Amino acid sequence: MTAGRPAPQAKRAAPRKALSLDQKFEKLGLLEPADFVVHLPLRYEDETQVEPIARLYPGKMAQIEGRILSTDVQARPRAQLHARIADDSGELALRWLHFYPSQLKQLQGDLPLRVRGEVRQGFHGLEMVHPKVTKAGQPLASALTPVYPTTDGLSQVQLRKAIADALNHADLRDTLPEEVRTEYGLMPFSQAIRLLHYPPPELSYDDLFEQGHPAWSRIKFDELLAQQLSLAQARAARQAQRSKPMKVGNSELTKALLASLPFTLTAAQKRCVKEISADMKRSYPMHRLLQGDVGSGKTIVAAIAAVQAIASGFQVALMAPTEILAEQHYLKMRSWLEPLGIELAWLSGSLGVKAKRLAYEAISSGQARLAIGTQALIQDNVQFQQLGLVILDEQHRFGVGQRLELNRKGDAQDKKGQAYLPHQLNMSATPIPRTLAMAFFADLDVSAIDELPPGRSPIITKLAADNRRDEIMARVRAEVAQGRQAYWVCPLVEESEALQLQTAVDTHAALELALAPLRVGLIHGRLASADKAGVMEAFRTGNLDVLVATTVIEVGVDVPNASLMIIEHAERFGLAQLHQLRGRVGRGQIQSVCVLLYQAPLSAIARLRLRAMYETTDGFEIARRDLEQRGPGEFMGMRQSGQAGLRFASLESDEDLIEQAQTLASTFRRDYPDHANHHLQRWMKGREELLRS
Question: How far is CA 533 from the centre of its chain?
């Protein structure tokens, strides 16, 4: 620091500018009266009556009146405010984990108080935690009080006032003609919306809380119909686009591929090939999902589609979300297609500059008919000569932009300026349950491989507490002694203080000692790509007996000789992930076993997951239970990808409404185009693109 110069003053952070009321509304997507109208309550509070303390029970939301008997601020383990309140029938404990001096002062007066909250079972009897406290004696509410979704700094009073104003100015005309409402037994929209914002006094808490009232049925039906209309529009828009029809008959290339295979296609695989072929013959882009359980043989179906496109004079791109999975596809496709004279290109971020340049040249010249890789395929340097088919594996793991970028690689125009798009085949080993398919994938054609290739032995799943580790070690030794191999999967790479879990690095070190002289390898996401490839090749060729791994082996890894899978801390994994990991064994004819090693005590949700894994190996049943446990947003990664969800309807309980909405949507746009547009404007309002992605 220069002598004599004063030390610089630390800059104060500029104070945050308070949001205006309109800006707070905007954070909730509330811009116009129509937005406020469909901003419906999350729940209702019953402030219409006062309950005697003696009639309370755990789980009940209740309002009581009484006098404070005592207050006490307890400093340990942290400052908490405790109080006891009594009425003529009994006493109740009150507790605040965080409190203000004003709350303590409110409780120390001698006036009777009205207290509202959820009753819980505490250490010393029933209690309310963080109850709402007001003065007693004020008039009770005449009807249920709505509680709306809100944001920081926006009170329920402000929301209620804005919604009341909107109801006086918004267009509440019904978007469903009277004959449609009659056919489906639906309340008029205006009546339903006003009832939900202002429940009449005769309506009970149970009537509305469980969303079983006809007013909720109307709202849920409207939401589902808007979703189905949007998906129908997406399908119509796709069918208005153009794609080059392919000559996908039984070409010489296709015949040669099928003749070279050491197995015969299953009936389900043949059916899926036929469905995909029919799509690629059309003059608009295919948009099909090929789904099937782990090990069901999706890759060969995709290979046949690729060969048919190549035989028609087009190039094909196959993109996978991880380098291990992409490389597995490359090695398998190369073994099938190179003997047929088809040149492949491999592209990933880890390739050297020269290897990338050669891949770019092979793709742009058309010399490489099939390009396989990771997101490296969507870089600007990658230019196709004539891309006719795009294949996306585990497509829900890509962002919307990434999927569109790869598709745009196939954009082309004829001499008249007509644009052409490539066909698209999506693959997923996460089967979509029926209700989810109806609600979110109605614009997508679905092919399902619903049988496993013959000769596969069902995988036996066993649960074991981690104190039985010695038994598991003995099982590993026994498998290796018979010439087989084992996976040992761990959830983390390095020790985490927050999650005291056994890690892959530590487990590898421990197993090398415990299982010596067995050959134990280690693979995880932080290894360099070349190192990963080397470890996988060593395991694949039998030069490693045991592979300690993180979830990088979740999909795509195919080692038929591996017959034992141990999943460490299985209670920490999601159900779909457990099923995917289990699918790494049972790839051959050897009886395979998956051991779910867990640490007690188990949470309720972990117990459900492990029970599902123990009870079934059916991927479709696993998917149904996973949807039940996680909801649609997390099931297909939709929260992460920004896909629009459902605010009011439930996939679990509203299957009948979903079917009705789907049935009506098929004719509604044709028979009532103005009503359909009005309906979409009210319910979707700009969310259609999110839904379609």
Answer: 29
pLDDT along the chain (693 residues), means of 10: 45 64 91 93 88 92 93 83 94 90 86 92 90 90 89 90 94 95 96 94 76 88 92 83 84 92 92 95 91 86 96 93 84 93 91 90 94 87 90 67 64 66 87 68 80 79 92 94 94 57 81 94 82 88 93 70 93 86 84 92 89 88 78 48 62 84 90 93 66 40
Beta strand 145-147 with 43-45: parallel, antiparallel or unpaired?
antiparallel
Closest residue by Cα to residue 372 from 344, 412, 410, 332: 344
What would the pLDDT profile of 230-265 be if each residue is shown by its tens digit?
Answer: 888 888 888 888 888 998 777 889 999 999 998 899
- The 3-state DSSP class for residue 214 equals helix
Q: What is the CATH number of domain 49-135?
A: 2.40.50.140
The domain made up of 252-449 has a fold known as Rossmann fold (3.40.50)
Q: CA 314, CA 248: separation in Å to the nearest integer?
A: 11
Q: In which residue are the tokens 């695989």 written?
A: 269
Residue for token digits 């030390």?
7
Inter-CA distances, 594 with 255, 459, 597, Å? 38, 7, 9
Q: What are phi and psi of 400, to 5 degrees?
A: -55, -45
460-616 under CATH 3.40.50.20, yes or no: no
Q: What is the Cα gyration radius of the chain?
A: 31
Helix (H, G, I), strand (E, B) or coil at 122: strand
* Separation between Cα atoms, residue 550 and residue 523, nearest integer Å: 7
CA distances for 531 relative to 161, 526, 535, 551, 692, angstroms: 63, 10, 6, 16, 39
Indicate where the chain has its CATH 3.40.50.300 domain(s): 252-449, 460-616
Sheet holding 370-373, edge to edge: 344-347, 370-373, 315-319, 387-393, 423-428, 287-292, 445-449
Distance between CA atoms of residues 356 and 350, nearest Å: 9
- Helix boundaries (H) for 250-322: 252-260, 267-280, 298-311
Nearest to 641 by CA among 430, 438, 398: 398
Helix (H, G, I), strand (E, B) or coil at 359: helix
Q: Where in the chain is the domain with CATH 2.40.50.140?
A: 49-135
DSSP SS3 for 641: helix
What number of residues does the chain have?
693
d(CA 573, CA 525): 17
Q: Is 651 exposed, middle or buried (0-12, 13-18, 19+ CB in 10 A)?
A: buried
- How many angstroms separate the CA atoms of 609 and 208, rounded? 31
